[in-house]
Amino acid sequence: MTTTSELTQREKRPVDLINAGSLLSDEEKRVRDLVRDFVDREVIPVAADHWDRAQFPFGLLPGLGELGLVGGTLSGEYGCAGWNNVAYGLGIAELARGSGSLATFLHVQSGLAMTTINELGSEEQKLRWLPPMAKCEKIGCFGLTEPEAGSDPGSLSTTAVEKDGGYVLNGEKKWIGNASFSDVAVIWARTDDGKISGFLIETDNPGFQADVLPRKASQRAAWQTHITLEDCHVPESARLPKATGLGATLSILTHSRYGVGWDGLGQAADCYETALAYAGEREQFGRPIASFQLVQQKLVEMVNEISLSQLLSIHVGRLKDAGGLDPATVSMFKMNNVAKARRIAATAREVLGGNGILLDYRVMEHMADIEGVYTYEGTNDVNTLIVGQAITGHRAFSPEPPQRAEERTE
Ligand SMILES: Cc1cc2nc3c(=O)[nH]c(=O)nc-3n(C[C@H](O)[C@H](O)[C@H](O)COP(=O)(O)OP(=O)(O)OC[C@H]3O[C@@H](n4cnc5c(N)ncnc54)[C@H](O)[C@@H]3O)c2cc1C
């Protein structure tokens, strides 16, 4: 028997009201369609069940690793696809359409861990880790956040003390995606000189422990962990040679934040497509609910925001490809697409009525997953402050340090 949700799935059409697809090259469309096909065939049939059971979909990793999406913009020299940033973003949006949780796995593996190794690692570290990570044969994570250091990563307290020609790390990390099944962890810690530095820690190190955070109501099919580093000895070769100072850390976040912006677009698109298909099928008062003005208004508001997000996403990707993308624009992009997705998911849920809260329809899953995305890669507030500083010149993250008397010019 065909369930209503299967019918809706069949009736769904990819949203592109304003023909944003006409702005894409043939190669970009090929990548989009490649990931879309994988998502339709492999991800969508199993995603809701994994989310419901809070199980990570390990069975999807080999197929995901074949696509070229993991580390998609990195060089072929390291076994990666070398796509441009628009193609990579389109692939992320398609993956997020199928599963916000799997897209979060990708942001950690590709946007954070692989990008750190590529940008801040030695040639030896790159050759060792990037090719198997691109295929998902090896998994990585990125440990920056701590129980007491979230939006303010500069206050992190994990230490890396020099000893016996290497380092000993001690501290705790919270919210770290993938770490319970990672082979390698990028860990940010404070060295003896007081600076923040990055290390690559192999997770079979006896001083490394990662425990999955239980009872999560968002990103249920992705696993975040609490990492404990207890007298974790690593050799000098574990240090990422270019990962020194908070600026290095933030440059990686800017890259990953770019991918997360496309994630918002993908999840919003899926919510809208479900709501439109459902409204066409569902009849009340003897007519499809799509024929009611109030329902149409909701659908139009959704497609209007999605269309604007599509244009913004392609434009931001083109800027990144041209090397002219500044961090504040990335913050605005992530903030816009994810905040819009949050509203679109809630509106789509409303259009589906009671069925909107059933996991079969996937809208509630997106709605919950977007809450995680709204918070990671800079909360909506933090990205607002980054844009605010860019346009006003005033930094509003914390009170300005009081000016000392001898610095006053009058
Ligand atoms: C699903 C998920 C996955 C994650 N994955 C990872 C990962 O793989 N690796 C990793 O290192 N981290 C990860 N994180 C952590 C994430 O980066 C942090 O949650 C985020 O930076 C916010 O930190 P916090 O949760 O400690 O909130 P806090 O920083 O405590 O913020 C609490 C509230 O205060 C607001 N706030 C904070 N400072 C200001 C300010 N100056 N002005 C105004 N408002 C402010 C925030 O916007 C927020 O609303 C993940 C988080 C989630 C939820």
Characterization of the model:
This protein has 410 residues and is of the alpha+beta class. It folds into 3 domains: 4-134, Acyl-CoA dehydrogenase/oxidase, N-terminal domain (Butyryl-Coa Dehydrogenase, subunit A, domain 1, Orthogonal Bundle), CATH 1.10.540; 140-245, Butyryl-CoA Dehydrogenase, subunit A, domain 2 (Beta Barrel); 247-392, Up-down Bundle (Butyryl-CoA Dehydrogenase, subunit A, domain 3). The chain is 50% helix and 15% strand. It contains 11 helices and 10 strands. The chain has helices spanning 4-11, 26-53, 61-67, 85-98, 100-120, 123-134, 246-281, 293-321, 327-351, 363-375, 380-392, and strands spanning 140-143, 159-163, 166-177, 184-191, 196-202, 208-212, 224-235, 239-244, 283-284, 287-288. Strands 1, 2, 3, 4, 5, 6, 7 and 8 form an 8-stranded mixed beta sheet that branches. Strands 9-10 form a two-stranded antiparallel sheet. Strand 2 (159-163) and strand 3 (166-177) form a beta hairpin. Helix 2 packs parallel to helix 4 (85-98) and helix 4 (85-98) crosses helix 7. The longest helix is centred in the middle third of the chain and has 36 residues, at 246-281. The protein starts with a helix and ends in an 18-residue tail after the last helix. The model is unreliable at 405-410 (pLDDT under 50).
